[in-house]
Amino acid sequence: MYGTAVGGVIMKKYVVTVTLNPALDKTVVVSKFEVGGLNRVQSMRTDPGGKGINVARVLTGFGVAVNATGLIAGTQGQLVKRYLEEEKISESFVTIPGQTRTNLKVVDASTKVTTEINEAGFSVGQEEINNFKQQLTRLLEDASFLVLSGSLPPQVDSRIYGKLIEIARAKGVKTVLDADDSALDLGIAARPVAIKPNIYELEKLVGRSLTEDAAVITASREIIGRGVEIVIVSMGAQGSLVVGKDEAYRATVEPMIPKSTVGAGDSMVGVLVYSLLEGFPLSKIAQWVTAAGSVTASKPGTEVCKLPEVEQFLPKVHVSRQS
Fold first, then answer.
1. For an engineered disulfide with 48, which of 10, 24, 32, 83 has Cβ 3.0 to 4.6 Å away?
2. For the whole prediction, is pTM greater than 0.85?
3. 188 near 172, Cβ under 8 Å?
4. Which of 263, 232, 266 is nearest to 250 (CA)?
5. Structural domain tally of the chain?
6. How far apart, in whole angstroms, are the C-alpha atoms of residue 143 and residue 154?
7. pLDDT in tens, 258-301
8. What is the CATH number of the domain that holds 169?
9. Looking at the domain assignment, is residue 136 inside a domain?
10. Annotated catalytic, 157?
11. Is the CA virtual torsion 295, 235, 13, 148 positive or negative?
């Protein structure tokens, strides 16, 4: 079936992901990371980076049609587009002046700890933002979901995600939002269908510490009261909490050794969209998104999960309903 019922509407399996601040992700592995000392690289890989791009990579691996868009600049931006082409990911990035940033991930082979060094990104003017909005409006004509995720370039107004959600709503497109700080808070005001904060982002959002599952559920329902339908709270090795208006589920994972947490949250977002397209109930969504994050965390560098890997991992995810 080409479309799946979501909220009573038959929707096309076509997703637009937005990355306003993409990057080239350069991952290097060293035997033991010496701060202030000489570190010799054992291995190195370069991948297209940015949270929306990672979501597009996940969805493509799950057989979902995707168009990755956003802003891109310079020779490094052209490299990002070339990598996407190699991975057979459709893209419609808007080219602007400047240079796409590089994010460096240093993996300590002895401790399995990854240190991230991320550049801020290019400067963006209002004309570039307006051009992007026009591009996005065209792309949303045949879309079922819009995914907005990741940091904003310097000088871009934090209200941008909220405005893009409103553009999507006018086209009948549902939005999943994965952001932080004011971009998340202001984006929620535009009522995306789902958000995926980690526990620290949720604490910042509601302005208090959340040490118990019941407190996390209460905080999530405060957000749902603002018009969001699903809140997925990622909690690292502790799994996740998936909260809806009338249901909440705790998902835990059997002990595992993570190799890199880069892209784990993006994998959860991608598989959330896949789950919504497939019409999964909330309990199954909890199991699938948690499996996706865990599989990606078990991979080195910036590799993301594949559908067969997630399916194989599902028995290791235990889901329980919360009151």
1. 83
2. yes
3. no
4. 232
5. 1
6. 28
7. 666 677 889 999 999 999 999 999 999 999 999 999 988 877 66
8. 3.40.1190.20
9. yes
10. no
11. negative
- Distance separating alpha carbons of residues 3 and 158, to the nearest angstrom: 33
| 68-104 tens-digit pLDDT | 999 999 999 999 999 999 999 999 999 999 999 999 9
Q: How far apart are CA 250 and CA 243, in angstroms?
A: 9
In a domain, 185, yes or no: yes
Residue 112 lies in a domain: no
Q: Which domain holds residue 167?
A: 3-21+50-93+123-321
- From CA 203, how far away is CA 144, in angstroms rounded? 30
Interhelix angle 51-61/264-278, nearest 10 degrees? 50
> Which of these is catalytic: 25, 47, 178, 266?
266
Tokens representing 299 are 């991979």
Which residues, in sequence order, are CB contacts of 198 under 8 Å at separation 6+?
233, 234, 235, 236, 265
Half-sphere exposure of 252 (CA within 13 A, CB side): 7
Cβ pair 100, 122 in contact under 8 A = yes
Residue 99 in domain: no
